[in-house]
Write a structure and sequence with these properties.
GO terms for molecular function: oxidoreductase activity. Residues 93-268 form the Vanillate O-demethylase oxygenase-like C-terminal catalytic domain. The protein is of the alpha+beta class. The chain is 16% helix and 36% strand. It has one domain (4-276): Naphthalene 1,2-dioxygenase Alpha Subunit, Chain A, domain 1 (Alpha-Beta Complex). The protein is globular, with a radius of gyration of 18 Å. Residues 111-120 have low confidence and may be disordered.
Amino acid sequence: MSVGAMKDQWYPVGLISGVTEEGRDSLLLGEPIRIFLDGGTPAVTGEGERPLPVELRYGHVWTCPGTPTRPLFDIPEADQLGRRLVDVGVCRVRCSPLRAVENFLDIAHFPFVHTDILGSEPHTEVTRYEVGIREDVDEVWATKVQFFQPQAAKSAEGGITTDYMYRVCAPTCSVLYKTSPPMPGEWDVIALFVQPLTETLCDVWPWMALYDDDASMTDLIHFQQLIFVQDRSVLENQLPALLPLDPGMEIPTRADLTSVAYRRWLKRNGFTYGAQLVAA
């Protein structure tokens, strides 16, 4: 499939702290890239050593294999004092990069995949919430989401009803805002930055901006890695491998409102690398 409009988007390709003089080779949308230090500053080249634009933000190196159509999205919480900024690392997943984002948006799987952490039976109902595309920023937002969680965060003590907001700010990037147990009235931020290696293989770079003065950085990282490893086994067994964009290919439920909006938004913008457009 042609990379189409997705070639002009920004993608994470590594942690800033992990870039070395020797550099490393990787893939982006099926094309070879190289990430390295150039005069002490991270740089990225594409095929034929073509220099690619670079942004250093949220602990990661970002690049665009084409011509950026807009600046890298903003997460204002990254600059707020008192937050712990957590670079979780990378998890390679054999799935469509779009599947990885859609799974992140799915709250209904919490009791069944993240049992006794993010969800538990019999608390399986997804109550009505609101979702739409904010035309001024061209992002998908889901608001007024609530779900009971036995352990909403590493710092949580006992179960709470957690408030959520989901934001899709790029075809392979999503940001979750959720109740902060130690800081009532504020949101913890958990982002999923996905690097599409190919249409069926991706590197996932989770990142967090939290209010948590008690847990060690290692514990915060391990907690989030545990959550995503649980997701990986599900993602790697989903069929079809590519994310279906034809509304007739799968039957959504009320809990899938965000997924439906995400798929429509992808199709509208031509973000189809990793997608299946029509039934096989």
